[in-house]
From TrEMBL:
Top-level taxonomy: Bacteria, Bacillati, Actinomycetota, Actinomycetes, Pseudonocardiales
GO molecular function: isomerase activity
Gene3D superfamilies: Divalent-metal-dependent TIM barrel enzymes (3.20.20.150)
Name this polypeptide is given: Sugar phosphate isomerase/epimerase
InterPro entries the record matches: IolE/XylAMocC-like, Xyl_isomerase-like_sf, Xyl_isomerase-like_TIM-brl
Amino acid sequence: MAVLGVQMMMLKQQVAEQGMFPVLRQVRDLGYDAVEVSQIPMDEANTAGLEKGIAELGLDVGALSVALERNAFATGDTLDTDFDKIVDDCRRLGTRYVRIGMMPYEAMSSKSACEAWAAKCEAQAQRLGGEGITLLYHNHHVDLAQHEGERIFDLVRRVAGSVAFEVDLFWVQRGGMAPLDMLEEYSGVCKTIHVKDFRVLPLPPESMDLLATGDPEDRARFMTLFNTNVQFAEVGQGNMNWPALLPAARRAGADYFFVEQDDQYGRDPMDCLRDSRDYLRSIGY
């Protein structure tokens, strides 16, 4: 059975306000066994809080988030400038995986740009491998776009054979590929999984008023509502087939399932995590 954890990006505000360890205690009390750290500074205070969570709560720090290179969107440590620190953090926390959350936008723009970026990933993955650490790449829907008939995900796999994957099943679904097909196709390299549900909202009754006016601008506003009525959902509150997906993810090689919900739409993230945990417990996790 894969270890069930939380993607701490959901709780970055709570960590900033309360400190790492008090938030980890709440995560543990909900029944989660591991965390993945993203969008939270790996400074001494937070790293010490994670150490305390391991020692006193029995939590597992399953993965740390990094960027390949320093850029405008990099929010934490980067492999080009912080390699030794990243390795030290992993050793300190007993962490085997580091993950890149997304390639830079410019790397997505062409096949050659993507190949060049993936080649840099391969070099860093080999360096990390020498330290006993595996580099993962996390997908979004854009990774199912194709350059000359080749998916970006496949391109990364071809060029960066030492890089394994963190498969975000919501973004696979949104990218137009059946998640079960993804897990079968990439079996053996799916080391961690982001578990979040895909909710389609009913159209609000008042939106029908936009159609009734006959005004082209109102119709355009209605079509915007119609085409954007998708949300990130608590696990079990959307349309994903988790009783089939989670065993398939384990067969594909996953060591960790990290619950993540990018937007909670005004709800307390802890309440969202509680609902997700309750559902997962109801299906045997």
